[in-house]
Amino acid sequence: MEKILQPRGRTLFIDLSSKNFLLKRTSVKGKLFPGLFTADQKLQTNNGLGYSGAIYTRQNPNGNRRGYECPEERDYYPYWHPTPWKDIAILPVNTSLCEYYQKESFNVAPRHECVEIYVGTTTVRHWSRYSNEEDCAANGGQWTPFYNYLEKAPSYKTESACVSGNRNGYKYIWARPLGENVQQCLVALEAPECKAAPWTRSNHLGNTKGGLASNYTWTIPFIPSADTKQCVLRIRYNISTDDYDPFLTDSRVNNNIQEGIMSPVQQNPLVDIGAANIPLQLAINTAQFGRTFQDRSHTFTVRPRPSGQEKPRIFNLNVRGKRGNIVQVYPAVEYDFIPNDLHLKTSDRVHIQWTGSNTHKNGAPGGDGATGDAGEGTSGTDRHNIVQINNLLENFPVPYENSTMWESAEVVWIYNGLNNISPKNLALNMASSGYYRCFTAAECPGAQHADYIYGSGLGMSSTLGSSPASYEGALLKFKSGTYFYTCTRNNNFTNRSQKGAIYVD
After folding, report:
1. Of 105, 128, 108, nearest in space to 118 by CA
2. What is the model's pLDDT at position 129?
């Protein structure tokens, strides 16, 4: 019997990936891992191969899946096969499990798969149904280890050149990456960070003590090649129950009427509390009694730092939430700057950026919230900007002549490639969300800037409708001081507050 461990209590898993198709293929055709607790759920076997594949779990008995996800891999951590995901952080309630989680992470511990060869050829099959070494060997396969990695290092062609020493504090290994059959030089990953999960109130999504959003600050790893990386972020939220032991409960107690085995939890059970034998029904769905939720981001890129900015700390100042009122955006939130309160040193840098859309129409069925996209400007559009305010209790922006934020900001880098940007032009660019770059053509020489001069073209919409939906941003260095700011379009008194503060010591 293979021992299956599941997270206990509330646990948050944060990981990163750049490809998922291979995992989908092995999930559909690979056999469900033996030993899993399925309670009284009846898992389907309609993958056409006569057995339940890894798309069928207690939480997912019908094999439903979204995108390229593998439900078995989604539901269990640490997973027993290689995956494309790179673990960033694990935030458990019970921190005594941290050593176990970090040691067993695929970041640092190889995972095996059964590698089979097509009969009469030397071609490796793209998948195998066998999920353990014994079955693999019995059916002519080779139980093969695969390793996770930060990126490949193809310039090192031999094992000796690869592992000859650490570079920039990173370890290099000679190993076989997921989905490939040849060993090569890989930049090794570190174990994920593990620390206590922040407290949140049950049934209230997102906020912690003090009313701040539950959050984790991720330090993006150094990329030795300096190549741009396209990534997807995933957050999994596990919640367990003490009504059965999540560590010791396995397939031996799966419901089996023929053998007289009763699962420790049953679907909507009737209980007798001793009041004249009156049965009471509990609201228990055994597919969700101890389960994992998953959220994934859109793709995003991690780019090299600008030249000369290799050493300073860089903080990302962005926008979270989506268009709509509090009911329409549920279970997400309305627009907000994140982090709301950013604390810096004068030696730090801030990358101000945000993303938006022109096609966000929350039509029927509206997900978990109501349909509709209440907000300012054209329906279905996201827009943001930054203007200074005197304090967080005020809603009117400060005239540029009375502002301090932009005079105190040094532009280290900006998306449009301009140099020597004046504080006034920086304020104009931020306020217009990139619609304008300069007040005069002399300050923005070059044909590439001609359409972005103040007063050119048809003029900017007062609700930013003509501005770009996304703002690639600027990298700023601030002088010591406190700076409050807001978004003129979305900050709507009594409806939503989109404000923030930067504190620089």
Report:
1. 128
2. 86
Whether 405 and 483 have beta carbons less than 8 Å apart is answered as: yes
What is the DSSP pairing of strand 499-504 with strand 341-344? parallel
- Residues 346-380 have pLDDT tens digits of 999 999 999 999 988 788 777 677 898 899 999 99
Helix (H) or strand (E) holding 99: helix 98-104
Cα separation of 456 and 340, whole Å? Answer: 34
Cβ distance 353 to 472 under 8 Å? Answer: yes
Mapped onto helix, strand or coil, the DSSP state of residue 300 is strand
pTM for the structure as a whole: 0.89
**DSSP, res 233:** E
What's the whole-number average pLDDT of the chain? 89
Q: DSSP letters of 331-399?
A: TS---EEESSEEEE-TT-EEEEEE---S-----TT-TTS-S----SSSTT------EEESSTT--SPPP
Exposure of 38 by Cβ count < 10 A (0-12 exposed, 13-18 middle, 19+ buried)?
A: buried
The span from the first CA to the last CA of the chain, in angstroms, equals: 58
3-state DSSP assignment of residue 151: strand
pLDDT band for position 25 (cuts 50, 70, 90): very low
Mean pLDDT of 460-480: 96
